[in-house]
Amino acid sequence: MLRRAGVLEDVRRAGFVPKNWSFRKADGTPIVTIEDFAPSKSPDATTVLPIDTLGKILWCHALKNDHISVRWGCHVVDVGQDKDSAWVSVRENGGTEKIIKADFVCGCDGAASQVRKSLFGGEFRGKTWTDQMVATNVYYPFDEWGYDDLNTLIDPDDWHIVARLTKDGLWRVSYRQDGSKSLREVLDEHPARFEHLLPGHPKPDDYTILNISPYRLHQRSAEKYRVGRICLAADAAHLCNPWGGLGLTGGFADAIGLSECLIGIHMGRADHSILDKYDEVRRAIYWNFTDPISTSNFMRVSTSDPETILEKDPVMATFARMHEDSKIREDFDRVCSHPNIFVDLASLSQHIYGILHDFTQYYSTGKGQASL
Asked: At which positions is FAD bound?
């Protein structure tokens, strides 16, 4: 998807390809390690890059396109439409309200989307998990404690993730916190949580935190992703917990699919009904793939007994057998190298659903080659 958008080379230069992925007990003891999980030799290898840096890269590319304008400081108040156009009512810095009109409005305004609320009110089908997650970016020498680039720590009470973010030693540590805790309580308890969870049991002077962000975990989807000339995509359309990275990936897939539909309409190769297909397909992918897979990933980390997980969890058992079974390893590399598929890792060679979908197949003159 990033290659198609023309930004992959910049992303690769700014980020890095991670090496090993380890599943561990809460105290850091390894359970199983997947070496070179990216895999590094694939042209579609996993690349790690902080989201704020990715945003800057995308913004710089947008500025080079004469057909794109970026307006800062605009708060969406409402949306509307008639048979010929759609519009967004925004409040600019200073309080001035303005109407921005176009052929279509695409609401990509995040989990608290005002576009979605204008269409459906407070309706957002799904659930919120009991636990909350506290995401932090921190400088701490995890390498000295034998941690890999990606570490998933399994425990019903102390589940957390430790992942290298940058080449200069910045790490993401995200950990469980009681969902009933207030922001003040989360911040007050944070030093004790770090001392308990991190290797070496550090004190605040032993690490440098750049930011700390508690947030709730959700599994939710809007009733529709298309209402007339107004469409929803990414977090504005659906939410999932972060285990597996399906939120950001699904958002990219939405953007690719919606752009194909709008390009088809613009080129005269599709009518507006292709947007109904976008709504139908993307919602089906959320409910049939993103929601169950991300839920399964979260349950594996948050409810499993780390002492028995290799015996009871077929996915973890498969990971463990990779060291001895070259066929499983080959299947894993093949799947991870393919940009369009995900698999049930309990049987790595089985494709269960594609998170991408080619909407150019619905063009009236046959399958086209639409580009972003």
From this structure: 76, 172-174, 215, 235
